[in-house]
Amino acid sequence: MTPKSMTPSDQSPLLRVENLRVAFPTPTGPFEAVRGVSFAMGREKLGIVGESGSGKSLTGRSILRLVPSPGTVTADRMEFEGEELTALPETRLRAIRGRRISMVMQDPKFSLNPVMTVGRQIAEAYRVHHRAGSGEARRRALEMLEAVRIRDPERVYGLYPHEVSGGMGQRIMIAMMLIPGPALLIADEPTSALDVTVQMQVLVILDELCGRQGMGLVFISHDLNLVASFCDRVLIMYAGRVVESCRAADLHKATHPYTRGLLDSLPRLEERRAELPVLARDPRWLEDGR
């Protein structure tokens, strides 16, 4: 059992975001993909759920200022460990990326360097942030491979990304992102490309490592059931807004019609239905988030 995660009410927030907005220029004027998102979190597991295009991944990328040009990111406040991220020079932000805030992407095949062995890549992530020697970095990389439950770490250390499976690749990415010892991990759909068995193994590893290292976790997903069983709190996003926030254990009690519609559209083994209901969208959700 991992320790009970702390919420913002238990301690000063690890991360506080107020009125986050992400806009892209279009021929007809700026388009806001994220519109006024606000939340605070401690060293807990916070799920961000929504359909494709809801702005959940952009929200995660915005924290590290990784939104591609010509996108623009603005916020009234985006504070991490008491430091305002929006005002930081790029040199200082680079010191925070990876070292204090890490991000695991959806598909490791596109995140790992194809011409470097996975062991060298993990060791390099450690050396960049800790100025360690090659021997110490190799030892820490092997320990991290073992921590993410990879058998025979010595052999895997020398493999190239194309030589590992999708599930092992995701574990390697987790090892690489966690080896610097970050305080916050942003996981963007880390299990969506994996089969159910491997998915659960990755979640167990994330849960154990978060509890052991006392990290905060932003878990971005489209899977309501997964988030409800894995996270402490949940933010539901629709069209760039947060329409509802609740404890994960109380997700089944959600009141917003969009959240209710998502829950009702999930198939259930204990129910027999001729067809799943189609979510009816209200234009007012785009304006007031209610």
List keywords for this structure.
33% helix; 290 residues; five-stranded antiparallel β-sheet; 11 strands; six-stranded mixed β-sheet; 10 helices; single chain; disordered N terminus; alpha/beta
Describe the structure in brief.
33% of the residues lie in helices and 22% in strands. The protein has 290 residues and is of the alpha/beta class. The strands form two sheets. Strands 7-8-9-3-10-11 form a six-stranded mixed β-sheet, with helices on both faces. Strands 1, 2, 4, 5 and 6 form a five-stranded antiparallel β-sheet that branches.
* Termini gap: 37 Å
Overall pLDDT = 88
- Helix fraction, binned, reads 25-40%
Return the string of H and E elements.
Answer: EEEHEEEHEHHHHEHEHEEHH
Portion in beta strands:
15-25%
Provide a count of the helices: 10
How many beta-strand segments? 11
Describe the protein in words.
The protein is α/β, with parallel strands linked by helices. 33% of the residues lie in helices and 22% in strands. The protein is built from 10 helices and 11 strands. The strands form 2 sheets. Strands 7-8-9-3-10-11 form a 6-stranded mixed β-sheet, sandwiched between helices. Helix 3 packs across helix 4 (134-147) and helix 4 crosses helix 6. The two termini are 37 Å apart.
SSE layout and pairings?
Elements: E1 15-24, E2 31-41, E3 45-49, H1 56-63, E4 72-74, E5 77-80, E6 83-84, H2 90-96, E7 101-104, H3 118-130, H4 134-147, H5 153-157, H6 166-178, E8 184-188, H7 196-213, E9 216-221, H8 224-230, E10 233-238, E11 241-247, H9 257-264, H10 285-288
